[in-house]
Design goal:
mainly alpha
Length: about 475
C-alpha cells in the first residue's frame, strides 16, 4: 500500500486515525498502530511482512544483549550488523552479485529470482541505527518488543523514509499528545506532499519515462534535456513528497520526525546539495560510517578517501546496478574536487553564486541521468546527446513536441517555483494560513480526481 492510493486515502488512513483518537491509553494506541502498520505492509508484501517482524525481533534481541551483557556487547553488535547486512545482500544484491561473477569469471551460475521487499533499505538501516546507538550508550535498550516493532514498522516512514533514530521518538512512543493544531498542520503537510507526488512528480515522470524508454534514434539534444530535467523534478518531488507525507502523518499521530529535504536545488555546491538532499540518509552515513572511519580528523587525504567510501556505499544502498554504483562514485569525485579546491564551494558575490548554482544543478542533473538510465551505455548516450545532439531529426522533434503539452508546461513552471523557498516569504503575510488551507483543499481535490481517474502513478521506491 502506498500513500498515493485511494485505498490508503479513503479507507486505511481515516480508520487508523479515528481509532487512534478513540482508543484509551497509550498501550492500546500503540498496539493498534503496530497492527495497522503490519497490515499496511502486508497489503503489498503478504509474505515479506514476516521478514519485517523477524528483522525487528533480531535487532530487539541484539540490543537487549548489548544492554545486559558487558563482556559480549561487541560480539552482539557485530552479529547484528552482519545479520542486517546479510538480509540486504540476500534480498537486494544476490542477483547482481551472481550476474557480475558470471560476467567477470565467464561462469553460468543460475541467477535466482529474488523479489526485493519494499522499503528494505529504509527499515534495515533504521534497525541498525537502534542497535548501534544502544552500543554507544546514546539510548537504552528497550525491554518491550512491541515498542521496538512500532519504531521500526510505523507505517508513515516504513517504505520511503525518512530514516528515524530511536532516541528521537522514544519519548513519544511512551507518551505523546495529539493536538488540534498538530493534526491541522499534519493534514496540510500531508496534502502538500501528496500534491507534490501526484500533481508534479507523476506528470514529470510520465514525460521522463516516455523519453527514456524511447528508441535512441528518437532522442536528440532537446529530448535529452527535457527528459533529464523532467526526471530531476520527478525524483525530487516524489521523494520529498513522500517525506512530507510521512512527517505530516507523524504530526497527526503525535510523532515528530526530522526534516528530510531542504530545497536542495538552490545549492551552490555538491557538498551543500548533500546537506539538503535526503538528510536522514546522508546523516546516517555520516554518523555510522564516515565518523567511525575517521571523518576529517586525519588529514585531507584521509578525509577524501572517507568521503569516497561513504558515497560508494551511498550508491550501493540505492540499488544493485552499475549505474547506482557509478552515481555514488560520481558524487564522491565532485566532493573530492571541492575538498581540494575550496574556492569552488566558498561563497562569493552574485556572479560567483550564479555560476556555483549552475555548476551544482548541472552536476546533479547529469548524475540523475545515470541514476535513471537502465544501463551505463544509455546514460553515456543520453549525456552525449544533451551536449552534442543539436542536429535536425524530424522523428525526435516530433516526440519532443508531443511532450510539451499545456499540462506539462504549467506543471514544469510549478515544479521550478516549488523547488525554491518562496513559501518562507509568504508565511510572513497575515493571510498565509487562510490561503494555505484553501490551497490545501484544492490540492487534495485535484489529487483525488487524478487518482480516481486511474492516471499514471508509479512508485519509484520499488527500485530501492
Amino acid at each position: 500500500m502506498v500513500f498515493s492510493s485511494m485505498v490508503f486515502l479513503c479507507i486505511f488512513l481515516p480508520a487508523v486515525f479515528v481509532l487512534h483518537l478513540l482508543l484509551p491509553g497509550m498501550r492500546a494506541k500503540n498496539a493498534m498502530l503496530v497492527l495497522a502498520s503490519l497490515i499496511f505492509y502486508a497489503y503489498g508484501e503478504p509474505v515479506y511482512f514476516l521478514l519485517l517482524i523477524g528483522s525487528s525481533l533480531m535487532n530487539y534481541v541484539a540490543a537487549l544483549a548489548i544492554g545486559r551483557w558487558q563482556k559480549g556487547r561487541k560480539a552482539a553488535l557485530v552479529s547484528a550488523v552482519i545479520m542486517n547486512l546479510a538480509i540486504l545482500v540476500i534480498f537486494k544484491y544476490t542477483g547482481f552479485l551472481i550476474e557480475t561473477t558470471n560476467s567477470v569469471l565467464g561462469l553460468s551460475l543460475p541467477v535466482p529470482e529474488v523479489r526485493m521487499p519494499i522499503g528494505i533499505s529504509f527499515f534495515t538501516f533504521q534497525a541498525m541505527s537502534y542497535v548501534i546507538d544502544v552500543y554507544r550508550g546514546v539510548t537504552k535498550a528497550q525491554s518491550s518488543f512491541p515498542r521496538v516493532l512500532l519504531y521500526i514498522s510505523f507505517f508513515p516512514q516504513l517504505i520511503a523514509g525518512p530514516i528515524v533514530k530511536y532516541h528521537d521518538i522514544a519519548l513519544e512512543i511512551d507518551s505523546r499528545t495529539v493536538t488540534t493544531e498538530g493534526v491541522s498542520l499534519g493534514i496540510r503537510r500531508f496534502i502538500a506532499g501528496l500534491s507534490k507526488k501526484v500533481l508534479i512528480a507523476n506528470t514529470m515522470g510520465l514525460v521522463a519515462d516516455t523519453l527514456f524508454n524511447a528508441p535512441q534514434l528518437q532522442i536528440n539534444g532537446a529530448g535529452a534535456w527535457i527528459g533529464a530535467v523532467s526526471y530531476m523534478l520527478q525524483i525530487y518531488f516524489d521523494f520529498s513528497g513522500y517525506s512530507d507525507m510521512a512527517i505530516g502523518l507523524g504530526w497527526m499521530f503525535g510523532f515528530h520526525f526530522k526534516e528530510n529535504f531542504n530545497y536542495p536545488y538552490i545549492s551552490g555546491s555538491i557538498r551543500e546539495f548533500w546537506q539538503r538532499w535526503h538528510i536522514s540518509l546522508s546523516g546516517w552515513f555520516r554518523e555510522y560510517l564516515y565518523i567511525p572511519l575517521g571523518g576529517n580528523r586525519k588529514g585531507k587525504a584521509r578525509t577524501v578517501i572517507n568521503k569516497m567510501i561513504v558515497f560508494l556505499f551511498t550508491g550501493i544502498w540505492h540499488g544493485a546496478a552499475v549505474n547506482f554504483l557509478f552515481w555514488g562514485i560520481y558524487h564522491g569525485c565532485f566532493l573530492m574536487l571541492e575538498e581540494y579546491i575550496p574556492a569552488i564551494r566558498e561563497k562569493g558575490g552574485r556572479v560567483k553564486s550564479l555560476f556555483q548554482h549552475v555548476y551544482a544543478l548541472l552536476v546533479v542533473c547529469i548524475g540523475f541521468v545515470f541514476f535513471r538510465a537502465e544501463t551505463m551505455s544509455q546514460g553515456i548516450f543520453w549525456v552525449k546527446e544533451m551536449f552534442t545532439g543539436f542536429g535536425w531529426n524530424a522523428s525526435a522533434m516530433s516526440l519532443v513536441v508531443q511532450q510539451l503539452t499545456p499540462v506539462y508546461l504549467v506543471t514544469l513552471a510549478a515544479g521550478i517555483a516549488a523547488s525554491l523557498p518562496l513559501s518562507q516569504h509568504w508565511k510572513k503575510h497575515k493571510g498565509y494560513n487562510t490561503a494555505a488551507c484553501v490551497v490545501s483543499l484544492a490540492g487534495l481535490a485535484l489529487c483525488i480526481l487524478s487518482l480516481a481517474g486511474g492516471t499514471y502513478n508509479p512508485f519509484i521506491y520499488f527500485r530501492f
